[in-house]
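Anyone up for a design puzzle?
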């Protein structure tokens, strides 16, 4: 990921928080069949390893996992809020007109070797933790243990799990840090009156230095 210094995010806690807030990732790798990509919800165990470890699973019918046998490297891409930025929001447009559109966004890239997991008990742990993560805020959280064990065993045979110890973690917060303060304010004001996702990006812009 091309990341100019002004957009680089190196704070590990911020990177982990971004992953946990946006856990639905694009997992990509390259192998004998070329580039493969799967869209998967991933679980971050922040305390495992230098940069944390990601856990998830493929449908067994998905050929992607076969390309990852033997510890092949994969890239997990976590996308945050993003928005089109109109030049009309820059005061600089009225001053000299030398402005063009851009796109602001937040993204985290996590790379590492993949360990495939087919042991039923380890798979059960992965799917249980994934479910617990997303059910925890519900008034009556559903748990894997709510379903009949024989049914869960059947479902586990239909998936292949994996662990991805993160060896490299890159963050890009492209939030207009390279623009004058007046232009940043103009963008925040423009985004604040747009869609909910645009407003989310505007809120994130208020946290940049």
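Challenge accepted. My sequence:
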């Amino acid at each position: 990921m091309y990341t100019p210094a002004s957009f680089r995010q190196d704070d590990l806690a911020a990177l982990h928080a971004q992953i946990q807030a946006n856990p639905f990732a694009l997992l990509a790798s390259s192998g004998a069949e070329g580039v493969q990509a799967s869209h998967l919800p991933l679980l971050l165990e922040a305390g495992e390893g230098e940069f944390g470890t990601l856990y998830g699973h493929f449908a067994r019918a998905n050929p992607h996992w076969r390309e990852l046998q033997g510890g092949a490297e994969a890239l997990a891409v976590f996308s945050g809020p993003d928005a089109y930025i109109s030049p009309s929001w820059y005061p600089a447009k009225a001053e000299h007109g030398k402005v063009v559109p851009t796109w602001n966004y937040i993204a985290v890239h996590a790379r590492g070797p993949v360990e495939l997991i087919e042991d039923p008990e380890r798979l059960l742990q992965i799917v249980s933790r994934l479910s617990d993560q997303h059910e925890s805020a519900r008034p009556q959280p559903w748990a894997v243990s709510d379903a009949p064990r024989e049914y869960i065993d059947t479902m586990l045979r239909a998936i292949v799990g994996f662990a991805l110890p993160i060896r490299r973690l890159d963050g890009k917060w492209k939030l207009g840090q390279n623009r004058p303060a007046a232009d940043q304010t103009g963008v925040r004001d423009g985004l604040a009156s747009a869609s909910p996702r645009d407003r989310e990006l505007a809120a994130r812009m208020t946290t940049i230095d």
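A detail worth pointing out: The first strand starts at residue 8 and ends at 9.
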